[in-house]
Amino acid sequence: MKPDIPAVLAEIAGLAARNAAPDVDPAERAGALGLSAALLGMAAEAWDGAAQRLVEENQAVRALLADAGERAGENASLASGADNDLRISTLSANNARLRAALIALHVAVEGDEAPEARALESRIWDELRLSTERHRLSGALA
User: Fold this and answer.
1) How many helices (H) and strands (E) would you count in the chain?
2) Please, is 72 exposed, middle or buried when counting C-beta atoms within 10 Å of its C-beta (0-12, 13-18, 19+)?
3) What value does the mean pLDDT take over residues 80-104?
């Protein structure tokens, strides 16, 4: 699960509003403030790297689709796309389409014993691992 930045900010706003009341227990307020600070730090880090991460992932998946050729099926046309609009919402929408295409490609090569299919599946797994690493925040446990 990946919480979106707006959802995290909405949660922080709720914590701030609830803890503004004078009758809130000081220990509860301190915990909420600590959580808010941690969430703001994570949101800032995620937001700062979001466009770069999405562009990298989109390029990597497009390269896989291009190299897959006919195996990419109806999704082959996505390989020639580009991320010219760098708004997070647009990059995320492109990423969702490309990930769906990658899943379809993975299904197509998973049962194929041809050496080219095995190599492509290995590259797909490599990209999935790299994608996970790109999403890791600096404070995350290894």
Assistant:
1) 4, 0
2) buried
3) 95
Token pair, residue 38, equals 């941690």
- Of 16, 95, 105, the C-alpha closest to 50 is 95
Contact 70, 76 (CB under 8 A): yes
Distance from C-alpha of 102 to C-alpha of 62, rounded to nearest angstrom: 9
User: Terminal CA-to-CA distance of the chain, rounded, Å?
Assistant: 18
CB 78 within 8 A of CB 65: yes
Say if residue 9's pLDDT is above 80: yes
- The structure's pTM equals 0.77
User: Rounded to an integer, what distance in angstroms lies between the CA atom of residue 33 and that of residue 42?
Assistant: 14
Model pLDDT, residue 1: 46
Task: Kindly report the length of the chain.
Answer: 142
CA atoms within 13 A on the CB side of 43: 16
